[in-house]
Amino acid sequence: MGERAAQPLRADAERSVRAILEAAERVLAEDPGASMEQIAAAAGVARTTIHRRFANRQALIEALATSAARQLAQAVDDGRPDTAPPLVAMHRITANVLQVKGAWAFALGLAEDPDSEAAALQQDINRRCIAVLERARADKLIDEAADLDWVRRVYYALIGESLRGNTNGADPDTLAARIIDTLLRGAGPRA
Fold first, then answer.
1. Whole-angstrom Cα distance, residue 40 to residue 38?
2. Is the dihedral of CA 68, 107, 116, 97 positive or negative?
């Protein structure tokens, strides 16, 4: 990104960018081939505004992916992965991530350029997830012989399936409790 990206936007410009990105998520989730003009109309901004903020459609898509990845990283941070007790951190992070992934499913599903900010954020999220799982293992919540990368991948799969299968509209806290219980205790009989 150029120097312009490093300069903070005025509050009204920031609001219009946020409105454009939110509209892009909605419109592109329904029609991935939607035009910049359709996105501008959904955002309630002039066509010239969207073109002034984003040089082209690809720039808008990249900004959308980066914005969603930043929100996902913030959801992890808000769960206090380094300071909260591991079980509490896992629950909070899971509930937060469910909310972000539910709201930004299209953007978070975009293929990432390996050199993009979104990809770097996802790598950091993966690293932080492993760190929380290591803390959970130290608290004897996870078997000491468990492959934590595998546990992370199963955890991510549980989140994804919960979002796809949440047809009854369970709240994020209820889903998070179910995900963490399944991850840590499996589906076997309870003592």
1. 5
2. positive
Amino acid at 9: L
Of 4 and 80, more confident: 80
Asked if 48 and 79 sit in the same domain, the reply is no
- Domain limits at 92? 64-185
| 19 in any annotated domain | yes
The predicted-structure confidence for 109-142, as pLDDT tens digits, reads as follows 887 788 889 999 999 999 999 999 999 999 999 9
Exposure string for 118-145, b = 16+ CB within 10 A, e = fewer: bbebbeebeebbeebbebbbeeebbeee
For residue 33, the SS3 value is coil
DSSP characters over 135-154:
HHHHTTSS-TT--HHHHHHH
- The string of DSSP codes covering 73-107 is HHHHHHT-TTTS-HHHHHHHHHHHHHHHHHHSHHH
State how far the alpha carbon of 99 is from the alpha carbons of 24, 47, 82, in Å. 18, 30, 21
